[in-house]
Amino acid sequence: MKRILLAGLISLPVLSSAYAEGAGSEAQPPKGPDVVPALQVAHAERGLLLDVATAGAQAVAVGGFGSIMQSQDGMTWKQVASPVDVALTSVRFADDRNGWAVGHDAVILHTTDGGASWKIQNREPDLYSPLFSVEVIDARRAIAVGAFGLIKQTQDGGSTWTDVVAPSISDDKLHLNSIAQLADGSFAVAGERGLLAWSADGVEWKRLASPYEGSFFGVVPWGEKGAIAYGMRGNVYASSDISAGQWKKIETKTTASFFGSHFVRDGELMLMGSDGYVAVLSKDLKVSRWPAKSEKSPAGSVTGGAVVSGQLVLVGDAGAFSAALR
Asked: How many C-beta atoms lie closer than 10 Å to residue 118's C-beta?
C-alpha cells in the first residue's frame, strides 16, 4: 500500500473508517475554492513519484502533491500543470492520448492529449478514501479501486463514475491496492490482509481463498487465465487460473516488500520494492536481482516502472531513475 508502507515519504491524510455506501453516484466535479492546483517546482522529477506509464512514445509519471511529469526519453523530464495538489498514486493510458490518474480525495483526473493537460472528473475529499490503482480498458472504460473497499467505474470516458457495490470484497472495509485486467478479459484485485478477488466483468466479484495473510500491493496478468500477486516481505504468488483460486509461492530470497511491477520483455516481469530492491521474474518464474552489484541501483523505495525509448524508468521516493534496458 503506497500510502502507508512508504512511511515518511509524504504526509498523507489520516484515513477514517467512515465509508459512504450506495448503489452509485455520478462523477463529482471540482467543488469550491479548496481545489488547489499543484505547485510548479524546479526538478520535480527528484521528488516523490508513485507511478509511471507510457502514452505512445513518452512516459508520464505521477506522485506527491499532485505532481505530473512527462518525458520523451526517460532522462529529461517536464512538469505539466496538475489541477490538484494531493498525492496521485496510479496512472494508466488506453492509447497515446487518452488516460486517467487517481489519488487522494478519491481524485480522478483525465487526459485526452497524452498527459499534456488534465481535468478533474471525480473528487470527494469528505469520503476519506484515496484511490490506489486504476485499470484502463479502453478510451471509454476504466475501473479504479482504493481504501475501505472503494471501487469506481466509468463506461463513458469519465463523464460519470459510479460506485461498484461488491459486498464480497467491500464489506470488510479492507484496502484494495491494485486492479488488473487479465489476458482473458476478466479482472483481478489484490489488497490488504491477503485479499484476492476475481471478476468476469468488473462488477460482480468473487473473493478467493488466499495463500498469504499479509498485504498484497500489486497484481498483474500471467498466462491465459492467470495472475501474479506480490506484496509484503518479498511474497510473490502465481496462479495459472485465478478463478480456481490455486496459487504457487515464488521463492524471491528477499524480505523486501514489492510495491510495483512492469513487463519489460515477453513474459519477463520486473518487480520494484523497498530500499531500491528490484527483481526480474522470468517466464518460468525464476527470480534474479536487478541490476548486478557492480551497476548503479535506484535510491530509496521504488513503486513503479516503464520502458520508454529503450530506457528503463523507475520511480519512487527519490524521484525518477533511468537506466539502459538490458
From this structure: 26
Q: What is the pLDDT of residues 40-90, one digit of tens each?
A: 999 999 999 999 999 999 999 999 999 999 999 999 999 999 999 999 999
Residue 197 contacts residue 203 (beta carbons within 8 Å): no
CB 1 within 8 A of CB 132: yes
Per-residue pLDDT tens for 140-199? 999 999 999 999 999 999 999 999 999 999 999 999 999 999 999 999 999 999 999 999
Question: How far apart are alpha carbons 259 and 257 in whole angstroms?
Answer: 6
Task: Give which of 119, 83, 115, 81 is closest to 96, Cα–Cα.
Answer: 115
Query: 146-151 long-range CB contacts below 8 Å, 24 or more apart?
Result: 146/102, 146/106, 146/175, 146/176, 147/3, 147/15, 147/175, 147/176, 148/15, 148/17, 148/19, 148/173, 148/174, 148/175, 149/19, 149/173, 149/174, 149/175, 149/176, 150/19, 150/106, 150/176, 151/176
Answering whether pTM is above 0.70, one says yes
In angstroms, the CA 138 to CA 152 distance is: 15
* Gap between the Cα atoms of 288 and 291, Å rounded: 9
Name 317's bridge partners. Answer: none
Q: Parallel, antiparallel, or unpaired: how do β-strands 142-146 and 131-136 relate?
A: antiparallel
Sequential DSSP letters for 102-128: EEGGG-EEEESSTTSS-EEEE--GGG-
Interacting residues of 265 by C-beta distance below 8 A, sequence separation 6+:
none
Cell of 302: 521504488
Omega within 30 of 0 (cis) for the link into 291: yes
